[in-house]
Design goal:
Number of helices: 4
Number of strands: 0
Distance between the termini: 19 Å
Helix content: over 70%
Shape: flat
Structural class: mainly alpha
């Protein structure tokens, strides 16, 4: 919990770098990471926005395991 600001900085850098490539999985993982961090920060609006984008990108390349992991995380977090 102590390093969430630092983690946010690095995941944003990761996303910016991934935009420089055609690596959709990298982009999706960066959005998923942003969703994770914002969820930990209890900003559900930003978390959901980033998770939604990650899911869209994973779907675009048929990466259904990534989608499943996000859905499981959301269900665990909100169904506790």
């Amino acid at each position: 919990w102590n390093n969430l600001d630092e983690a946010l900085t690095f995941i944003k850098m990761s996303l910016e770098r991934s935009w420089e490539t055609d690596d959709v999985i990298s982009q999706a993982c960066s959005y998923r990471g942003l969703g994770d961090i914002y969820l930990a920060l209890e900003d559900t609006e930003l978390s959901n926005r980033h998770f939604k984008r990650a899911i869209e990108l994973f779907e675009s390349v048929g990466e259904f395991e990534g989608i499943k992991e996000i859905e499981e995380l959301i269900n665990r977090w909100f169904c506790i």
